[in-house]
Amino acid sequence: MARTPLEIITMLTKTRFVLAVHRLDVSIPFYRDALGMRVDFEVPGWCFLSRDSFALMLGECPDAMAPTDLGDHSYFAYVTVLDASALFQEFREKAVEFIKPLADEPWGMREFGLRTIDGHRIMFGQEIEAGTGAACVRRVGQ
Known about the structure:
With 142 residues, the chain is α/β, with parallel strands linked by helices. The chain is 18% helix and 38% strand.
């Protein structure tokens, strides 16, 4: 189905997550060196980073609540990748803190989770055939 002109000009083209961090001088090396992100742009108090289509804006907020105090609300992104196993291995070699080991899930994702140096949590997942995970459940209509 073809898009209307209004749908074309109002199309969402990119997502950039905005995170408050206590110290940019601590956070930037983690995202750059451990997660392999590129520093795209810096201005006082802000750093823009990206890796492929995953983009972040880090804002220095020394008095902000720590993400670890947010419990489950410290999750901020689920990033779909081509090869979760290879990315997991890359991050493991960089001594990243994992909060969920690499696993195939019944919702059709091979996924893992990590905690950033600031306490934010990110999930990474690769699409696989649904129902192939270790904890498979019968899908509705099957």
